[in-house]
Amino acid sequence: xxxxxxxxxxxxxxxxxxVAFNCTYSNSASQSFFWYRQDCRxxxxxxxxxxxxxxxxxxxxxxxxxxxxxxxxxIRDSKLSDSATYLCVVNRNTGGFxxxxxxxxxxxxxx
Amino acid sequence: IAGITQAPTxxxxxxxxxxxLRCTQDMRHNAMYWYRQDLGLGLRxxxxxxxxxxxxxxxxPDGYSVSRANTDDFPLTLASAVPSxxxxxxxxxxxxxxxxxxTFGSGTRLTVV
Lengths: 111, 113
Hints:
The complex is a heterodimer.
Chain A: E1 4-6, E2 11-14, E3 19-25, E4 30-38, E5 44-50, E6 55-57, E7 60-65, E8 70-75, E9 84-92, E10 99-101, E11 105-110
Parallel strand pairs in A: 2-11
Antiparallel strand pairs in A: 1-3, 3-8, 4-5, 4-9, 6-7, 7-8, 9-10, 9-11
Chain B: E1 4-7, E2 10-13, E3 19-25, E4 31-38, E5 42-49, E6 56-57, E7 64-66, E8 76-78, E9 87-94, E10 103-104, E11 108-112
């Protein structure tokens, strides 16, 4: 089992739809969490951090559920420009290297 | 523009050849990383450096080596390339470590034939 797992999708949604992605992690010692966005043939870029209390940035809302060991990303009022791959990232506080990337969830927003 | 510069952008390399991928950052970040990204596998850490003068092995270090002589540069060397090293390679940096987000370079697409 992978340490960080995401549904690879693709998610195909119409413009204006609300879409949610989940990401599960297996290491209960994980401490910090992020969502990155990666456009086709581009580098990943930090979208937002995920705090215990949840956080919101415009149309994007990220939440953390430590008890069930998952994080989520909600996108409201989807735009064509939201089409990308969304990577879940988990930092654990054990081991020599600590940052684990999920394989990503692909989102296609269609007109 | 502050950020990370990777070179070359792409390369086709004969198997058995030696190759160094270059990575330079101008943000004075302490930590730097090399990842490879393969379809369906996501980003996998090859080597990392928490500060100049130190390096560590990541998840998939075999066949690769790195050095960190100064804060800005973190080259990745393939001593004798093999086809399984065909991948997209990303260099990244972060300021104070794992609690920060990463800044990535634009990547190097390497094909080993």
